[in-house]
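Students often ask why inverse folding is considered easier than folding. One informal answer: many sequences map to the same fold, so there is more than one right answer. In these notes we will look at a single instance of the problem. The structure comes first.
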C-alpha cells in the first residue's frame, strides 16, 4: 500500500556503484578502449564518437593541462579518486567525481574509470550522514521490529532510554515499557494491536502519545510521541515495521499546564462562595498537579469579614479539604512559628517541603513525600494558605509545578476575596432589607394578618421586595406590596426609600390610583440622569400594588402599577382574581392608573404577593397563580398555615427571586360599633350633635369620654356648618379608640393656628388637637371628612 504515491523515490545505492555509475576503460596510452551505456547517459557521447580517441578530449581544461592531468592519473598504481570537469556532447561542463582503478590484463595495462555527477554524490553522502545521525546522534528513538513484532535493531537514543538494547533483541515489543499506556482515544490502547494494524493494512499510525517510565530513568514519568510505519524491501516483501519515538515530556507538561490554567480560569471563582471556591481549586489541581489540595482560611474570611492583621501567622485557621463542597470537611489547625507553613505565610512566598510533615495535614498526611505551601495573596493581604500534596505521584514539585501552583493560588485568592466581599455585601444588604421591612405590623381591627418573606438564593443576591400595613383614619387599613427589579444593596436601599414614600403618601389619605400617580412621578424624577456622571437611579421597572380596606363598609379599593393583582377567596370558598390588567410599572410616566373596587364579606382571605411566589425558572406565572389559588381554597385554615402551604407548594431548589406573601382575613365592624347622624346646616344642630354623642357613649359604656368627645364633636360640627352648603354627617366608631368623623361637601380644610389673645375664634382646632391623640382631614369625591381619634381609658 503506497500511502504517498507522489513522494520522490529514495535510492541508497552509491552513485559510484558499478550498477549506476558511468564506466569507461582506458588503455596504456590514455585512449578510450571501452565506453559503457551509463557513460553515454551521463555525458551524451556515443561509443562511435569516443572509442579510440584520447580521453583527454573529454576534460574541460587547456590542452597542455589535459594531457598532464590524464598522464598523472593513469600512471598511478593504486585506485585514485578526484573531481574533474568533463565535457558533455551538448556543450555543457559537468563536474564529476571520478575514480581511476588500474588493472592488468594479459600483460596489457589498462585503467577502469568510474564517474558520477558530483552533486548527486554529495546528496547521497548527505543521506548517509543523515542515517548515521539518526542512528547515533538523533533524539528521535528508532526501533525496528520483525513481522513477529520482536525487536531487531534500535538506534542510540532508544539504547540509552532502555539502558542497553542488547538485552531486548529478539524480545516482544511489550517487554520494552511494560507499565506504560497510550493516551490517545482514537486508536487501540494496546501496542500489539497498533503494530498488528500497521503490519496488516500498511497504514502508518503517527503522533500517538505514550506515557510510561524508561528503564534508564524509572523514577520520572515520561511522555513520548510515537509513530509506526511498515517496512518492505525493494521487491515489496514485508520485512516488519519500525517505530519512531520522541520524548515530548516537557512540551506535554507545558500543554497540560496551559490547559490547566484555561480550565482554572473558567472554574475557579465562578461561584462567589468561599467554600465552593476552595473546592474548585482542589478539583482543578487534582490529580494533574497534586494528589490532594488543602486550603486553610481564617474564620473571618469564611464569614465574609476582613482577614485579621497583626496576628501571628498560622494561628486560628480553619482547614478545608475535599474536592466538592459536599465532601468538604472543616477542622481547626494552627502552625508553630518554625514550620514551613508559618514561614510561607510570614514571607508571602511559596515554600517546598520534602520532609515528613510535622503538623497534621489531614487524613493520610504522613504518606506525602512532597508538599508545596503557597500563600493566598490578594491586594497585599494574606487570605490563607493552600497546601499541594503528592503521595501516589512519585515526582517532587519542580520549578514549573511551583509556578503553576502559584498561578492557581492567585486565581483562587481572587475568587475567595470576591466571594468574601460578596458574602459581606450580601449580609449587609440582607440586614438592610430586613431592617427596612416591617419588624411587626401595627395592631388594628380591620384585618387579621400573616406574612412571609423569603430572600432569593444567596448566589443571586438580595432583592427589592417590600410589603407594609398602614393604619388609616376611620378604622381603615392600607395594604401594599412592591418589587424593585434587580438585586443587591442598591435594590434594598431603593426598596426602603419607596416603602417610606408609600407610607407617607398613604397617611395623606390618597386613594390608590392617586397615590400610585404621585409615586410614579417621584420615581420618574429619581430615574433622571444625575448631574456630573450621567447616571440615573436604576428604579425603572419598579412594580407596586396599593389597596385600602374599610371594615365599616366592607369596601376594598386597589390599584396596580405593573404588579400582579391580589387573589380573593371569599367566605364561601370561591377564589377569584381581578380581571383588570395592571397599569404600567412606576417611572414610565404619562399613563393613568385605575381603581378596582370590590365588596368583601367578613372572613374573606386576600393574598397580596410578589412574582417570586408564583414564578420560577421551571413554571410560568399563570401556573404559579393557579397553584396559589388552589392553596387559598383552604381559606378556613389559620393564616399562618396558609402562608406555609403557599410557600411549600413552590418548586424545590434555589430561588432566583425574593418571595413576599401577605395574607389578610377581613373583619367587619357591625352596627353596634358604628353610629351615624345626619345634621342640617343649622348652628342649632351643634347642641343636638353634642347630646346624641353623650347618649351614644353612655350606651357603649364610655361615659368617661363624654366631655372630651362632646367638645371635639361640637368644634368639628360647628366648623362644618359654618363653611358647608349642604348637610353634615357625624359618625362615631367604637374600635380600639373612639373615632369621631364629620363630613361635609366643602373641599377646603381648616388649619390649626395659634390664636392671639384678642381673637374671637381660631381656638376650636387647637382644642381638638389637645383632646385627641390624632386628627386630620381626608378628601372624598363629594367633599372632605375631618376626623379625630380619642384614646379609650
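Output (designed amino acids):
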Amino acid at each position: 500500500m503506497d500511502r504517498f504515491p507522489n513522494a520522490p523515490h529514495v535510492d541508497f545505492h552509491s552513485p559510484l556503484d558499478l550498477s549506476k555509475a558511468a564506466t569507461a576503460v582506458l588503455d596504456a596510452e590514455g585512449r578510450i578502449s571501452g565506453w559503457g551505456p551509463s557513460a553515454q547517459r551521463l555525458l551524451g557521447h556515443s561509443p562511435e564518437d569516443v572509442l579510440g580517441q584520447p580521453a583527454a578530449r573529454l576534460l574541460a581544461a587547456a590542452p597542455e593541462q589535459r594531457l598532464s592531468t590524464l598522464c598523472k592519473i593513469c600512471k598511478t598504481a593504486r585506485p585514485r579518486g578526484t573531481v574533474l570537469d568533463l565535457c558533455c556532447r551538448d556543450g555543457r561542463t559537468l563536474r564529476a567525481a571520478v575514480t581511476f582503478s588500474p588493472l592488468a590484463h594479459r600483460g596489457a595495462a589498462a585503467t577502469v574509470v568510474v564517474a558520477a555527477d558530483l552533486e548527486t554524490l554529495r546528496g547521497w553522502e548527505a543521506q548517509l550522514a543523515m542515517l548515521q545521525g539518526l542512528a547515533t546522534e538523533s533524539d528521535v528513538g528508532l526501533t525496528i521490529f520483525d513481522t513477529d513484532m520482536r525487536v531487531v535493531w534500535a538506534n542510540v537514543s532508544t539504547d540509552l532510554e532502555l539502558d542497553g538494547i542488547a538485552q531486548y533483541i529478539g524480545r516482544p515489543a511489550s517487554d520494552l515499557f511494560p507499565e506504560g499506556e497510550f493516551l490517545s482515544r482514537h486508536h487501540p490502547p494496546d501496542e500489539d494491536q497498533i503494530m498488528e494494524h500497521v503490519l496488516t493494512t500498511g497504514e502508518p499510525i503517527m503522533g500517538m502519545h505514550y506515557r510510561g517510565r524508561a528503564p534508564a530513568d524509572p523514577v520520572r514519568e515520561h511522555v513520548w510521541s510515537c509513530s509506526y510505519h511498515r517496512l518492505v524491501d525493494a521487491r515489496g516483501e514485508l520485512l516488519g515495521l519500525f517505530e519512531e519515538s520522541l520524548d515530548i515530556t516537557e512540551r506535554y507538561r507545558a500543554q497540560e499546564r496551559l490547559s490547566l490554567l484555561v480550565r482554572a480560569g473558567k472554574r475557579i471563582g465562578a461561584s462567589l462562595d468561599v467554600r465552593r471556591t476552595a473546592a474548585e481549586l482542589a478539583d482543578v489541581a487534582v490529580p494533574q498537579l497534586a494528589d490532594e489540595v488543602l486550603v486553610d482560611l481564617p474564620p473571618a474570611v469564611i464569614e465574609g469579614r476582613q482577614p485579621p492583621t497583626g496576628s501571628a501567622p498560622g494561628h486560628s485557621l480553619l482547614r478545608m479539604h475535599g474536592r466538592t463542597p459536599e465532601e468538604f470537611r472543616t477542622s481547626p489547625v494552627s502552625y508553630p512559628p518554625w514550620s514551613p507553613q508559618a514561614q510561607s505565610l510570614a514571607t508571602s512566598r511559596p515554600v517546598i517541603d520534602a520532609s515528613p510533615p510535622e503538623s497534621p495535614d489531614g487524613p493520610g498526611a504522613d504518606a506525602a513525600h512532597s508538599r508545596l505551601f503557597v500563600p493566598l495573596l490578594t491586594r497585599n493581604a494574606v487570605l490563607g494558605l493552600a497546601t499541594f500534596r503528592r503521595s501516589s505521584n512519585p515526582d517532587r514539585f519542580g520549578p514549573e509545578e511551583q509556578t503553576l501552583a502559584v498561578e492557581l493560588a492567585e486565581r483562587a485568592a481572587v475568587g475567595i476575596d470576591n466571594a468574601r466581599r460578596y458574602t459581606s455585601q450580601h449580609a449587609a444588604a440582607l440586614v438592610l432589607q430586613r431592617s427596612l421591612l416591617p419588624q411587626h405590623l401595627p395592631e388594628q381591627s380591620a384585618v387579621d394578618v400573616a406574612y412571609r418573606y423569603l430572600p432569593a438564593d444567596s448566589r443571586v443576591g438580595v432583592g427589592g421586595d417590600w410589603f407594609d400595613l398602614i393604619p388609616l383614619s376611620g378604622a381603615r387599613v392600607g395594604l401594599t406590596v412592591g418589587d424593585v427589579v434587580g438585586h443587591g444593596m442598591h435594590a434594598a436601599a431603593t426598596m426602603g426609600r419607596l416603602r417610606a414614600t408609600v407610607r407617607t403618601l398613604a397617611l395623606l389619605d390618597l386613594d390608590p390610583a392617586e397615590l400610585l400617580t404621585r409615586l410614579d412621578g417621584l420615581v420618574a424624577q429619581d430615574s433622571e440622569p444625575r448631574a456630573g456622571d450621567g447616571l440615573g437611579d436604576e428604579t425603572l421597572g419598579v412594580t407596586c400594588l396599593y389597596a385600602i380596606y374599610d371594615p365599616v363598609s366592607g369596601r376594598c379599593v386597589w390599584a396596580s402599577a405593573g404588579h400582579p393583582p391580589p387573589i380573593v377567596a371569599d367566605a364561601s370558598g370561591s377564589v377569584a382574581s381581578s380581571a383588570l390588567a395592571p397599569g404600567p410599572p412606576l417611572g414610565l410616566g404619562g399613563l393613568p392608573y385605575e381603581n378596582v373596587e370590590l365588596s368583601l364579606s367578613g372572613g374573606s382571605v386576600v393574598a397580596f404577593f410578589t412574582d417570586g411566589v408564583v414564578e420560577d425558572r421551571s413554571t410560568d406565572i399563570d401556573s404559579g397563580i393557579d397553584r396559589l389559588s388552589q392553596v387559598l381554597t383552604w381559606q378556613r385554615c389559620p393564616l399562618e398555615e396558609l402562608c406555609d402551604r403557599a410557600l411549600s407548594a413552590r418548586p424545590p431548589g434555589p430561588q432566583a427571586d425574593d418571595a413576599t406573601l401577605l395574607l389578610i382575613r377581613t373583619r367587619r365592624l357591625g352596627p353596634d360599633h358604628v353610629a351615624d347622624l345626619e345634621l342640617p346646616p343649622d348652628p342649632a344642630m351643634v347642641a343636638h350633635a353634642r347630646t346624641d354623642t353623650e347618649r351614644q357613649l353612655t350606651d357603649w359604656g364610655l361615659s368617661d369620654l363624654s366631655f372630651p368627645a362632646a367638645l371635639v364633636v361640637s368644634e368639628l360640627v360647628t366648623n362644618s356648618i359654618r363653611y358647608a352648603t349642604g348637610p353634615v354627617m357625624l359618625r362615631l366608631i367604637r374600635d380600639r379608640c373612639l373615632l369621631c368623623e364629620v363630613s361635609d361637601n366643602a373641599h377646603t380644610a381648616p388649619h390649626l393656628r395659634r390664636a392671639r389673645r384678642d381673637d374671637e375664634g381660631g381656638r376650636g382646632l387647637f382644642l381638638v388637637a389637645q383632646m385627641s391623640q390624632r386628627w386630620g382631614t381626608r378628601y372624598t369625591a363629594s367633599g372632605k371628612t375631618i376626623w379625630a381619634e380619642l384614646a379609650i381609658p
